Amino acid sequence: MPAISIDTFFACSLMVLLVLSAMTATARILQPLINMPINVEVAQRLGEIAKRILLYTGKPVDWGQNAQTIPEEFGLAEAGAVSPYALDVDKVSRLNRENAYCLSYVQIFTSLKAADLSFRIEIKPVFNVRLNPTAIFEGSNETVYAFEVASEKEDGALVSTILRTYVLAESLLQTNDIQNFGGRTSFNITIPNTLPSPAVLIVFAKSMYNNRATSYAVYSLAHLSEPPRGAFLRLSPINHTLTVASTSSEAILRRVYALTFNSLWQLTQTGSNSFRIPVSSDVSPTVLVVFGTNATQPFVEWTVYPQVPIQTGVDFASLQSVSDVYAYEHLVSIGNGLYQCTIFLGGSKT
Questions:
Q1: In terms of pLDDT, which residue wins out, 163 or 221?
Q2: CA distances from 118 to 46, 76, 182, 249, 346 (A)
Q3: Assigned domain for 228 exists
Q4: CA nearest to 310, candidates 274, 334, 289
């Protein structure tokens, strides 16, 4: 299929999905377990539960913003939202296992008040940004990295996007805009070999046909030996505050940044281990980057707000003890961006 046809189909699909979600709350029913006939009555009941998760704020309505609050009743909707299927950025972030304030499976299960059901919730961008380093050219003074980048759906269909790239280090910032018309392109970045801190490449992608459909990717540039993510810090954003918990007694924070498609801020410390995240009207998520040292070793950590993608709940594919498992797909909004949410629900075998 020609690229323009794929792009047109993608744009139309987004509009159709949004209308269906907002007006009829219709979800596509999937069956992850093979050779199971559809039980219409069960499918309808579970579909109502899935909709309630996305349309109900839960109790209390602001449970996502308070790190110590466990919801009495579970719901992900944003309080006071003007349109349906608008999810709260903090309730969503508290489903991510990387967040220190993440709800456990038992806490969600109890607050769902559906004792006969198991669940799984997945939220992700409507398309992915895939970064592939293709070459590294090391010179005496600088290193050039060559990348191929693709904006694509899970089925491999390319999505025409506008890209903005950031190369960020403690003392370095480079930006570049790329019109990625075909959904796939390549580019080079250059960093000095004398750079004293690690560097990261951050790529934001915005659909050319619906600018609320955005995605991102982060890549660590290996000009210095870099420890794995989470080695020294745990980053937990909620209520527009980034809480930084040290996992090493020798970790020292040096600079903290917040980036969106259109903006970059250096954050100031508001508490012993907290930084205020700017409220942005941008449609992209906010990537949060922390530079520091552990003893004499420089490091960089990052996360994103909202903390998407997320997967929480039961892995139904690995179980043989449930029946009538259905998945309900909805297009949802978080902040100003669009995301794809799938809720899997299943009951115990009788």
A1: 163
A2: 11, 17, 41, 40, 5
A3: no
A4: 334
Residue among 162, 182, 147 nearest 261 (CA)? 162
Any domain includes 265: no
Cα-based torsion angle of the residue sequence 40, 122, 337, 160 in order, rounded to the nearest 10 degrees: -90
Q: How many folded domains does the chain comprise?
A: 1
Q: Say what the alpha-carbon torsion angle 51, 282, 59, 25 is, to the nearest 10 degrees.
A: -10
Residue 212 located in a structural domain: no
Range of the domain at 83: 3-124+310-348
Distance CA(311)–CA(160), nearest Å, equals: 27
> Hunting for tokens 């970064």 — which residue is that?
131
Could you tell me the maximum CA-CA distance found in the chain, to the nearest angstrom?
A: 70
Please report whether residue 87 resides in a domain. Answer: yes
Contact 277, 286 (CB under 8 A): yes
Angular region, 324: left φ>0, alpha ψ -120 to 50, beta rest? left
State pLDDT tens for residues 278-313: 999 999 999 999 999 998 888 999 999 999 999 999
pLDDT tens figures, 106-136: 999 999 998 888 999 999 999 999 999 999 9
The DSSP symbol for 33 reads S
Closest CA to 128 of 147, 149, 153, 148: 153
Among 233, 240, 225, 334, residue whose Cα is nearest residue 289: 233
Q: How confident is the model at residue 6 (pLDDT cuts 50, 70, 90)?
A: very low
